[in-house]
Input
Amino acid sequence: MTHLSATASDLQTLADKAYEIRRWTLELITWAQWGHVGGSFSMAEILACLYFREMYIDPEKPGCAQRDRLVLSKAHGSPGLYAALALRGYFPLERLYTYCELGGLEGHTDMNTTPGIESSGGPLGQGLSIAVGKALALRLQENAQNRVYCLLGDGEINEGQVWEAAMSAAHYHLDNLIAIVDYNKVMGKGFVRDLMGLEPLGDKWRAFGWEVLEVDGHDLAALLQTLHLARRVRVLGKPIVIIAHTVKGCGLEWMEFNYKWHTHAPDPATADRALRELARNYGRPEQGYSRLNMPAKVETFPGAN
Output
């Protein structure tokens, strides 16, 4: 539960969780040799605040009716979400190394195979529609306590379905729905402003009938205050959107705002250097890639020579 009286110790705990989310994200992507690093890094503080402070959840009862729900609409950011879920206790950390393997964690979220996942994802632009349905269901069940959070990528809100869902949420006055835009300004092939500009983004959401809050998505104290406002203060009969201004690849300077790290897996040596640098940036004991000296994975396909 969020309180505005978060102490310095509370904030340090959340900073530690954000670091761990980034560290494990890089571990699992390097091992799988596939995944979205930049967009997972940009939402690390958001995930830390949600899973370790804000949301009503119980990892031992992931399907409990009296829980908050998080829909990851930007489902390609699954490495960051998997890391947060494992750290929160939904499944063992070792399972992260099954990412993108048969029978393991899916490249995009699959609610049927992984505890804590609230919606299956893949095609962009669909998550907000799912979240609207969940929020409306809670309303019909007269559940006024729980919230539905929907984490959106900035590039995906080019999709028309996002705005159809936004219109629907306002029509039904779903103030138990909190959308969070991970506004990291970078898409797979370049800057959002060049490929499909979004500004004035806040005004667009307001025009669709939403309550709009904006925040530095890496400032933990500001995030906690904004999440508190969204859940407990700005409940005014309108859905709420938090525009979280973030940095693609945040945590490693050479990844930041670099579209080449949208979908890219580092080789083990690069991962080792990155993880050591990340630890130094967080003032943590230096720790490299845990599987640096293990044999490389070899992909085989039916009919291959």
Q: What stands out?
A: Residues 175 and 235 are 6 Å apart (CA to CA). Confidence is low (pLDDT under 50) at residues 298-305. DSSP finds ten helices and seven strands in the chain. The domain at 8-281 is CATH 3.40.50.970 (Rossmann fold).
